[in-house]
Design a protein that fits this description.
By secondary structure, the protein is α+β, with helices and mostly antiparallel strands. The protein is built from twelve helices and 20 strands. The radius of gyration is 22 Å and the shape is globular.
């Protein structure tokens, strides 16, 4: 038997890095808002299954212009002021690859505080199991939770599930690759007790053992040798940021059977109270050939990733200088799923849009992430051969139409399932906060006006004005 839970202006499905800002943005824009999340923890890949904050932030483009503000900037600023984040790290040789590390556990606490500040109603430990449709018009969702099943009605529904689950249930068109071509998934872990002086000394004395070239040379005006000289000047591990390499160690461990061979060795940094810095291993398990929309594959990935983590940690602790006395403090509760469905919307963002740094009249945010770089199972965590960045060190606009689900009314999608081609897949944390915020504001405006989100495509001025008031950067950059 179905119960009736309530009726809302905006219902956000999924409480991850797109759903959290979507709900806050909608509420700030005046909408009665409900956020539904299948577990008790808000944050998704930000703190439940992924990196330590906005690593690889790309809040700035290659010209040094800030292109992302809003929710990402606000949460970083609040945590920095409270002692739970590091300042934006912008090593000259990194170009757009800036770092905005926050303590993910404190970020997870902060967003609950922000929900209360903005009167967002939460419905936790709840699965969306179906969509209420009247023809092609979405009227709400069906939910399952410990007390049974309930219907939730909404003027506008936002799909922030990551895998496009609500859109899929509503019958939306989508694109997904064969599972042997999808990016691998990961269960990440964090360790403390690292001797960072020893790590830094090893990096400096084995500089050719690390990967620094990436795709930055056209934009930072440096050669690989220039970059190595900069790294040799580093006074602390924070001057380097994320580390990839330890190649001699990896090769030796492969020969002795002590490394699983599904990825390279590397880690991000994680700030903690009292000035501590932890190492976060985001790429030490890579499970490929799995479609995580299939529960059998998803279960396999959860198990296999942990088996790879066990192998990886034994190797790291044995061979990496500085990790002899380190210990695991945190294993992410669930797998980080990098790639599944991309929902087809009224516009499909393309690689050419990214590379040409295209601007759109219906801009709702920006990104300077490159196209083409994908995670793969192999000797490196990331394949960079096909990477291309926006021209002239600039950024591209994200059009609102890429959030309006094709063929359906009253349904928006935000986060990594927005409408893009495969090379320009917008799955990274700050991209998801940008599209989540935009979807929240648009949903609130549509609900107040009594129109569908699609009706706003030719009348987006108010949405854009509200986004700017909420800190979004839409104009004035390359």
């Amino acid at each position: 038997m179905l119960g009736y839970y309530g009726s809302y202006d905006v219902v956000v499905c999924g409480g991850g890095t797109s759903g959290v800002p979507a709900a806050i943005a909608a509420a700030r824009a005046g909408a009665k808002t409900l956020l539904i999340e299948r577990v008790g923890q808000l944050g998704g890949q930000m703190n439940f299954s992924g990196p330590p904050g906005f690593a690889y932030a790309f809040l700035f483009n290659g010209r040094g212009e800030q292109i992302i503000g809003g929710f990402a900037q606000e949460t970083h600023k609040r945590l920095l002021e409270a002692g739970h984040a590091l300042p934006h790290l912008r090593p000259k040789w990194r170009g757009q690859f800036t770092f905005s590390y926050v303590d993910p556990d404190w970020w997870g606490l902060l967003v609950y505080e922000m929900m209360k500040e903005n009167d967002v109603e939460l419905m936790l430990h709840t699965m969306v199991t179906d969509v209420i449709l009247d023809g092609n018009v979405v009227k709400g969702v069906v939910t399952a939770h410990p007390s049974g099943k309930s219907i939730v009605l909404a003027k506008v529904v936002i799909d922030c599930t990551g895998e496009g689950e609500v859109s899929y249930l509503a019958g939306a068109e989508y694109d997904i690759l064969p599972k042997d071509q999808l990016e691998p998934s990961t269960v990440a872990f964090t360790v403390d007790g690292v001797d960072w002086d020893k790590v830094l000394a090893y990096v400096k004395s084995n500089i050719d053992d690390f990967i620094f070239d990436q795709v930055l040379l056209p934009y930072n005006g440096m050669t690989v040798e220039d970059i190595k000289k900069e790294v040799l000047k580093a006074e602390s591990i924070l001057d380097i940021g994320e580390i990839m390499g330890f190649e001699k160690i990896r090769v030796k461990a492969l020969e002795t059977g002590e490394w699983h061979g599904n990825s390279g060795i590397g880690f991000f940094l994680m700030p903690k109270e009292g000035g501590r810095v932890l190492a976060h291993f985001q790429h030490s398990s890579h499970v490929g050939n799995a479609d995580c929309t299939d529960v059998r594959d998803l279960t396999y990935v959860e198990v296999e990733a942990r088996m790879q983590d066990i192998i990886a940690w034994k190797c790291i602790k044995k061979y990496l200088p500085g990790f002899e006395n380190a210990y695991i403090t945190r294993v992410c509760p669930e797998v980080r799923i990098r790639e599944t469905r991309r929902i087809i919307c009224d516009y499909v963002l393309t690689a050419d849009d990214v590379v040409e740094a295209r601007k759109f009249d219906d801009v709702i945010g920006k990104s300077s992430f490159p196209v083409g770089g994908k995670h793969a199972v192999g000797d490196r965590a990331l394949t960079l051969e096909a990477v291309r960045l926006p021209k002239d060190g600039g950024s591209h606009d994200i059009p609102y139409r890429a959030l309006v689900v094709k063929g359906l009314e009253n349904l928006l999608v935000a986060g990594k399932a927005i409408s893009t081609d495969r090379p320009s897949h917008h799955r990274f944390l700050q991209q998801t906060t940008v599209t989540g915020t935009a979807a929240g504001v648009a949903a609130a405006v549509a609900a107040r006006r009594g129109v569908t989100p699609r009706a706003l495509e030719n009348d987006l001025k108010e949405v854009q004005e509200i986004l700017i008031k909420q800190g979004a950067i839409l104009y004035g950059t390359h």
